[in-house]
Amino acid sequence: MSMPVHQAGNLEGADSAPMPNRRRTRRFNKAFFLNKLFKNYFLFSILTLCAVLALVIFFIGRTAILVFGDVSPAEFFFSLDWTPEEGRFGAALFILNTLSLTLLTLIMAVPISVGLAILMAEIAPKWMKKAIRPVLDLLVGIPSIVYGYLGLTVLLPFLRELSGEGLGDGLLAAAIVLTIMILPTISRISDDAIGAVPKKYREAAYALGSTRLQVIFRVVLPAAGRGIVAAVILGMTRAIGETMAVVMVIGNTPQLAKTLFTPSSVLTSNIVMQISNVEFDSAWNYALHMMAFLLLLISFALILVIRYLGRKGGAES
Amino acid sequence: MNRFSASRKQIRALRLDRIATACFYGLGALVLLLIFWLLFTILGKGLPGITLSFLTKLPEEIDPGGGIGPMLFNSFYVLILSLIISIPIGVGAGIYMAEYAPKNRFTEVLRICVESLSSVPSIVFGLLGLAIFAELLGIGLTILGGAVSLAFLNLPMLARVTEEAVRAVPDDLRNASYALGATKFEVIRSVVLPVAMDGIVTGICLVAGRAFGESAVIILTAGLSTSGEMWDFNLFSPGETLAVHLWYVNSEAIVEDARQIADKSAAVLVFVVLLINLLFRVPLWFNNRKLKR
Amino acid sequence: MKLFKKLSLLTVASALLLSSAIAGTAGAKDTLKGKITINGSTALLPLTLQAGKEFQKLHPKVKISASGKGSVTGPQAVKKGIADIGACDWDASVDVPGFKAFDGQVANKVAVIPFATIVNKSVKVDNLTTEQLKGIYSGKITNWKDVGGEDEDIVVITRSFGSGTRVNYQAKALGGGDIVKKEKNYKEVGSSGDMKTAVATTPNSIGYIDLTYISGSDIKAVKHDGVAATTENVINGKYKIWSYGYYMTKGEPTGATKAFIEYVQSKKFQESSLKKLKFIPISAMK
């Protein structure tokens, strides 16, 4: 490694004599000044980040809280009737739909992505692993709106054909699109978690005569468990917050999704569909902001869970 | 486990092992096939029809044959503006977290902030932009609003990738430099950053790719229309981007060839994102190879 | 040197000529500058876009940007200050059923918008009565065979709340009847374009839209009580499902906005482009 040995040597001061004294101090001052300046700049940067977060919470929360001036919290959180034009703001249906969509997505995404992670980390030869990773990265690169568009033009007609439904819009279509979207997130992080399991665990298990399958399911997966759960939760935050891909295939009708093919709406899709229809100072606008605030709270809660898992995992190993 | 007890149980376990291995390979093959099929569908349907005039022409609202010029321009313009805003702050924040942050409560709080911010759904940033620019400042839906809101979205990701890249720099290098009497900033500037540059650039590419395709934020903050002319650098023009246009043309299909325009726009979007990733990463891959040898 | 002189003379002359030519087309209002943002009704959007294009040719310094969602977005955006003109399919300066008046806004009448019932090309029915439509949209009739078609489920596509097309359609085609949410075979869409795409791509679907959007072979308009949805039938009073389209402004329009609205209301635009788009000039209605 070639290292830039630069003017820094002068800072040592007295013993490296030949420099004229004044020049040395000036240089020293400059270095010292820059050091100080940039330390503060870096600190300023991170504080800006925090300020943005505060801004988000303040602006969304400030408007959101106003909803309870017009709508009782009980109605907002427990009523399934969202008819804003008649003053009924039951957001429970969006919350429930978001939850069921996320659940459905995870049911499909977790086995596939964890399976893929196992393949990459434990089974496939090294060259194959190296080939799969960039390809998964390609999947990350495709914009969500393109996923939505493909869902609309390819998946929906296919589902219509398959199920005999009139429309095909609904939870199932949205969940399939989301599954593909969060697949790389979950499998990449799970892959890392599995890779972090100490080799000696595996060797011990093999020494006892276990097959690879047994090693994977009885030793590696339990050991990597927390990491995998963290990966799944990270995928979850993506699924819950995704907007445009969902908007294009879910049907956008504010009603509870009782079947896989009921055209319905989730928190994100309802916000983006209705926000331009409302006045800034109306209960409807406040309600939409409260829904956004709920999204925020859910994401924060999930992040805390990941942190908790991470800390526990760290303490064990 | 001796030879004599190589029992049925063991044979079954071995067979199961083989079947499972096959299943895992099958799953992997399926996923890969799916990915290639997706890319093939998007690019295959759209790319062949793309001409230079499609990329530069103004969109038609009623007659067929419109282009995507202003949207494509806005996409890059908004992206570059947002990166100009977010890179200095995001990278700075990442460096702070990796190099300066002491191990204490305060740092812990900062870390929670970064993680929380990165989990904020993009639609919420859209609402924030709407609240600040349309409601508070009253300047309506503009390129500026879109770029700033997008920059908010980029910030936490940039901070994270920078932090990871900087942390990956071996301490030996730092110590050697300190030993030569360098100040902390000098160490960062001339040792840490050059070494971490690969990782940072890769991270920026990922962020740029995501921002290029972002639509929820732009719809709420930059609007669904352009100023109707090419090369409009005015920050206060409405700034519909290509990703938004894909949605718009699909739902406002007045023109007869809306479907083709959507197909082509999708192909251009994916193509550009792939390009952003490839252009910057391929040289890095080669570099890495050389370094490792 | 001589050549240079000649050349410069030529340049000056041609520049003069060019500028006078531009001035000639743009008339005395060439000084018109500004930015007009238009939001609102997607039913009016094709008209707005076409007018915007023509207007910008006359006044290159005016920037017009238009986008659409539901009608209510128009006056809403004007109120928020996001838009200078809010396109709306009803007079939003007075109370209408379901919507309160927007105080301080002025309604500028710009066109007559005919609406039509549309079905997917797979549907064999070509006439529906008010009663049948009421039945379909209230969820009482769910199969095409009950209205003279084949034995297929009816897929109802409707505009979401805030759409002027919905307001007018409900009042005039459904005779004030309700549009009832259903769990199956029911979808709400946010704009006219969405409506067109949805009906065009969903077999056995029914929807409603303004006449401008009806083109191509995937959707077809059906007769209402035996009357075809054509501009002639609107003008001669046989076809009832239409409304005026309005440009809402904050107070009386001024400057570029005023000039634009005047252009849209001008005889030149009303009699040519507006008609071509299957809207009806305001002057045609008595």
List the helices and strands and how they pair.
The complex is a heterotrimer of chains A (317), B (293) and C (286).
Chain A lengths: L20 H45 L1 H4 L2 H6 L3 E2 L4 E2 L2 H32 L2 H16 L2 H20 L7 H25 L3 H9 L4 H30 L2 H7 L16 H8 L8 H34 L1
Antiparallel strand pairs in A: 1-2
Chain B lengths: L7 H39 L5 H5 L12 H32 L4 H15 L2 H15 L6 H25 L3 H9 L4 H30 L2 H6 L20 H10 L6 H35 L1
Helix pairs in contact in B: 1-11, 3-6, 3-8, 4-6, 5-6, 6-8, 7-8, 8-11, 10-11
Chain C lengths: L1 H25 L7 E7 L4 H14 L3 E5 L6 H8 L4 E4 L16 E16 L6 E2 L1 H9 L16 E5 L4 H9 L13 E4 L2 H10 L3 E6 L8 E6 L6 H5 L6 E9 L4 H11 L1 H5 L1 H4 L10
Parallel strand pairs in C: 1-2, 1-3, 5-9, 6-7, 6-8
Antiparallel strand pairs in C: 3-10, 4-8, 4-9, 4-10
The shape of chain B, in one word, is globular
> Quick one: how many beta strands of chain C?
10
Number of domains of chain B: 2
Helix content of chain B: over 70%
Strand content of chain B: under 5%
Please give the share of residues in helix of chain C: 25-40%
Q: Let me know the largest β-sheet of chain B.
A: none
- The number of helical elements of chain C comes to 10
Largest interface: A-B, 93 and 96 residues
CATH architecture assignment name of the largest domain in chain B: Orthogonal Bundle
Q: Report the average pLDDT across residues of chain B.
A: 87
Give the H and E element order of chain C: HEHEHEEEHEHEHEEHEHHH
Task: Provide structural commentary.
The complex is a heterotrimer of chains A (317), B (293) and C (286). With 317 residues, chain A is mostly helical. Chain A has twelve helices and two strands, in the order H-H-H-E-E-H-H-H-H-H-H-H-H-H. Residues 1-18 of chain A have low confidence and may be disordered. Chain B starts with 7 loop residues before the first helix and ends with a helix. In chain B, 75% of the residues lie in helices and 0% in strands. Chain B is globular and about 70 Å long. By secondary structure, chain B is mostly helical. Chain B folds into two domains: 2-49; 52-292, Orthogonal Bundle (MetI-like fold). Chain B has helices at 8-46, 52-56, 69-100, 105-119, 122-136, 143-167, 171-179, 184-213, 216-221, 242-251, 258-292. Chain B contains eleven helices and no strands. With 286 residues, chain C is of the alpha/beta class. Helices cover 35% and strands 22% of the residues of chain C. Chain C has helices at 2-26, 45-58, 73-80, 130-138, 164-172, 192-201, 231-235, 255-265, 267-271, 273-276, and strands spanning 34-40, 62-66, 85-88, 105-120, 127-128, 155-159, 186-189, 205-210, 219-224, 242-250. At the A-B interface, helix 1, helix 4, helix 5, helix 6 and helix 9 of A face helix 1, helix 3, helix 4, helix 5 and helix 6 of B. Chain A: It is found in: Cell membrane. Chain A: Part of the binding-protein-dependent transport system for phosphate; probably responsible for the translocation of the substrate across the membrane. Chain A: Keywords: Cell membrane, Membrane, Phosphate transport, Transmembrane, Transmembrane helix, Transport. Chain A: It holds the Pfam family BPD_transp_1. Chain A: It is a multi-pass membrane protein.
